[in-house]
TrEMBL record:
Organism: Streptomyces sulfonofaciens
Protein name per Swiss-Prot or TrEMBL: Short-chain dehydrogenase
Lineage of source species: Bacteria, Bacillati, Actinomycetota, Actinomycetes, Kitasatosporales
Record family assignment: Belongs to the short-chain dehydrogenases/reductases (SDR) family.
InterPro entries (alphabetical): NAD(P)-bd_dom_sf (IPR036291), Sc_DH/Rdtase_CS (IPR020904), SDR_DHRS6-like (IPR051122), SDR_fam (IPR002347)
Keywords for the protein's UniProt record, in alphabetical order: Oxidoreductase
Amino acid sequence: MSTAPRTVLVTGAASGIGLAVAESCVEGGFAVGAVDVDATALAAVATRLGDRFVAADADVCDETSVASAVGLLADRLGGFDALVNCAGVGGYTGDVTETSPAQWRRVLDVNLTGAYLASRAALPWLRGRPGAAVVHVSSQYGQVGGAGFPAYCAAKAGVIGLTRAMAVDHAPEGIRVNCVCPGPTDTPMLRRSAASPKVRHREDDRVAGRSLLPSPADPARVADVIDFLLGPGAANVTGAVVPVDGGWTAG
């Protein structure tokens, strides 16, 4: 990672895109404040990445849990220069008549409310930091519909709206806010989703037909785009919604 932020708070840092972002930061000599609900996985990553990876387990859906973890990490690291919201859950629930209220709430709570709560807790620590930046992780399904994913599409579209609102609100403070919209990415979440026969039946042909580039993508390639958005090369970029979907939404 060759960007300006020196200390980066990453949610969902124990696996998938969040882990790829954390690895990129640590490899570049930056410190990572890592949040994830999976304490065991966080501890394993901390052992591998060393002292620059400082972890606190938290449920991003729980306001008290998030605030406590962010406060602990800020105290240990001296605040943050950037926030990357990667925490998420997969969203295949069937159509709206098949999606239970509990499933709907869970998908929105983790993917959308979690980004809001982490931002709410972290932003006071970003104020006054040169080059401060936030990157949210949305999805191609925040921009297009997906059969059987009504809650996930709604949540990820909400992340795009949150990004734009925060960009307007916090530009006067010098804080840039952008989001990336990955397509199919080789993460544990995608592999769990693909294990479902219903998802596989509905999605295999769509992935093959919609992705113009090889799919699924390496999470490190998504981290590369996040790296750019955090850094000085993106100093004039805020409120942007950046597809990293192999051309899924191009046509």
